[in-house]
């Protein structure tokens, strides 16, 4: 399990998202989908996350629409309007959005609502005697602590789940607040946890929280404490090394990683971290050696694959770089390759027909992303189709969505081809 999934508030699993949608825990699912969308995913996974996000949004919207329709039938137009406005924010599909808009159109004018409200007790006692609650995301997130705990633990090692489940309520409350991103409140709750629950897991969670808040010294101290109590706690091992690196403690970070390797602890993680450690210090030849060991140990993390390929390319090991880029899944177009591999080939004027197909497909899939339009233009230039390349280049060079490095590439091409 990659540390960054834990340390930076990620660690959400697609399995957990699937489970939340299947159990109709749509607020949980929406939250998980948002978290997963910020993480590197394979193309198939990205598509599934998007489908599940839509299902969750529509599920919430449907609940609020149904509630609104019931309230309208009882004459409670003010509450119904609240539900409908929230449904508008949550809905994803066009058909359901139309249903919501029709329900909104059936709402009385604001001046009429007050009159209707005064008569609602007489119109429908079943809905006038109880207050209805709008299904907001924040309120629903902590509606069922047991379900939330189960959901979060899907992203933890299975062997640790029973230990977390056996904790006292103060520990669980602090734990859930941490994973909801409520760091300040979570910290105050962690500091109130009973002494009996202040074990290695407590030290890990509190250390990760301190580090996430930027207090690296406190974070390091708590994570070291966790490892003193349980030297085999992989979560704390994965958390400690990036804290040391972030704090500039490179020699100590390498020392700890070598110690972990000597004990046989997670070689793929250790070699990947050693790669990153030496990249940070611009020691790319050493980084390349560790990258090879990490790959041999079975590292498959998407971000590491990109890092390793970049290191190989920077050190001139182009065959190794291409081999690693090929580990990435192909883009959606038939016969296409991954976008990073296509960009690699473009840099060396290779496989240009496949490259062009891949970038054209990316333009269709992400029409608002000028990066791929620029890449198409660059491929045209590589194929000596200068006129076609300039035509696209002039359209994208001033696109405000272009990142600075891409703008520099585009401007350089305009100068080169006298555009």
Automatic annotation (TrEMBL):
Q: Which SUPFAM superfamilies match?
A: TPR-like
Protein's name according to its UniProt entry: Uncharacterized protein
């Amino acid at each position: 399990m990659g540390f960054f999934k834990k340390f930076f508030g990620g660690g959400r699993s697609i399995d957990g998202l699937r489970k939340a949608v299947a159990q109709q825990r749509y607020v949980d699912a929406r939250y998980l989908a948002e978290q997963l969308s910020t993480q590197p995913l394979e193309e198939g996974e990205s598509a599934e996350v998007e489908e599940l996000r839509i299902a969750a949004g529509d599920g919430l919207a449907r609940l609020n629409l149904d509630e609104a329709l019931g309230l309208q039938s009882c004459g409670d137009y003010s509450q119904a309007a609240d539900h409908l406005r929230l449904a508008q924010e949550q809905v994803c599909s066009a058909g359901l959005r139309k249903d919501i808009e029709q329900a909104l159109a059936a709402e009385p004018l604001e001046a009429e609502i007050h009159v209707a409200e005064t008569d609602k007790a007489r119109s429908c006692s079943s809905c006038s005697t109880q207050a209805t609650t709008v299904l907001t995301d924040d309120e629903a997130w902590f509606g069922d602590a047991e379900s939330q705990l189960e959901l979060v633990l899907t992203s933890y090692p299975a062997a640790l789940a029973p230990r977390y489940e056996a904790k006292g309520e103060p520990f669980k409350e602090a734990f859930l607040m941490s994973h909801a991103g409520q760091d300040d409140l979570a910290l105050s709750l962690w500091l109130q946890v009973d002494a009996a629950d202040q074990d290695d897991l407590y030290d890990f969670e509190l250390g990760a929280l301190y580090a996430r808040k930027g207090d690296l010294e406190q974070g390091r101290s708590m994570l070291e404490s966790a490892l003193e109590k349980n030297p085999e706690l992989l979560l704390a091992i994965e958390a400690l090394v990036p804290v040391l690196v972030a704090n500039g403690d490179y020699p100590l970070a390498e020392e700890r990683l070598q110690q972990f390797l000597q004990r046989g602890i997670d070689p793929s993680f250790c070699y990947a971290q050693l790669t990153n450690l030496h990249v940070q210090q611009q020691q790319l030849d050493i980084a390349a050696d560790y990258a090879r060991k990490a790959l041999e140990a079975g590292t498959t993390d998407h971000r590491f694959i990109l890092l390793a390929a970049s290191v190989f390319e920077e050190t001139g090991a182009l065959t190794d770089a291409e081999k690693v880029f090929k580990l990435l899944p192909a883009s959606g177009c038939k016969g296409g390759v991954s976008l990073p591999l296509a960009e690699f080939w473009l840099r060396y004027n290779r496989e240009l027909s496949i490259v062009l197909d891949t970038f054209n497909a990316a333009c269709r899939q992400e029409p608002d992303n000028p990066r791929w339009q620029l890449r198409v233009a660059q491929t045209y230039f590589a194929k000596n189709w200068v006129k076609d390349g300039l035509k696209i280049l002039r359209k994208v060079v001033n696109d405000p969505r272009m990142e600075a490095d891409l703008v520099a590439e585009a401007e350089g091409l305009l100068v080169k081809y006298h555009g």
